[in-house]
Specification:
Protein name: Two-component system, regulatory protein
Number of strands: 5
GO molecular function, one term: RNA binding
CATH superfamily of the largest domain: Response regulator
Shape: elongated
Number of helices: 7
Helix content: 55-70%
Organism: Fimbriimonas ginsengisoli Gsoil 348
Strand content: 5-15%
Keywords: Phosphoprotein
Order of helices and strands: EHEHEHEHEHHH
Length: about 190
């Protein structure tokens, strides 16, 4: 698994890199600030990003926000701070795990594996939602086109639907495309 790490302290970054490599992970990028972490995440497309909270230029939570919004990778915050305000900000940013320092090397694999698994589940759900939205939109267009055919040709609903269906097969176009053409023709 490919990992990006971000911490403004080079010693901590080196320790974390060695821990991860000893656990069999491939550290593909290292950043010293949040902006660099975002840029490297975009560039390297890692499987998971581990970021410190307190960093210059852009803090880890702001970086998590961007990485999450762009669906680049799941993020784990690794920090010495566990106050409520930071945890709430981290949750709102979409972080997948929150590890408080000091931690043991054995704490990393479960967090990484769970974060990656949750990220993949979220991606799958987002794809399903997009598909459902597209199908709903197509259904609305077909219903509108049926209404137009029913009014113009004095058809019942099933006859209007069947006309759209036949036209779709004859033209080798989707029912949505046929419905859009009917609606467009009506508006002209």
């Amino acid at each position: 698994m490919r990992v990006l790490i971000a911490d403004d302290d080079p010693i901590i970054r080196l320790d974390l890199k060695q821990m991860l490599e000893n656990l069999g992970y491939d550290v593909v990028a290292e950043a010293g600030d949040g902006q660099q972490a975002v840029d490297l995440a975009r560039e390297t497309n890692p499987d998971v990003c581990i970021l410190d909270v307190k960093m210059p230029v852009m803090d880890g939570i702001e970086a998590v926000n961007i990485i999450t919004d762009e669906n680049i990778a799941p993020t784990i915050l690794l920090t010495a701070y566990s106050d409520r305000e930071l945890v709430d900000r981290a949750k709102a940013a979409g972080v997948f795990a929150y590890l408080v320092k000091p931690f043991k090397p054995s704490d990393l694999p479960p967090s990484i594996e769970v974060a990656r698994s949750r990220f993949e589940q979220n991606m799958h759900l987002n794809n399903e939602v997009t598909t459902l939205q597209e199908r709903l939109e197509a259904r609305k267009l077909v219903d509108r086109a049926k209404g137009i055919l029913m009014d113009e040709h004095k058809l019942n609903e099933s006859e209007a639907y069947r006309r759209i269906q036949i036209q779709s097969m004859n033209l080798r176009k989707t029912m949505r495309e046929v419905a859009e053409a009917i609606i467009l023709a009506k508006s002209v």
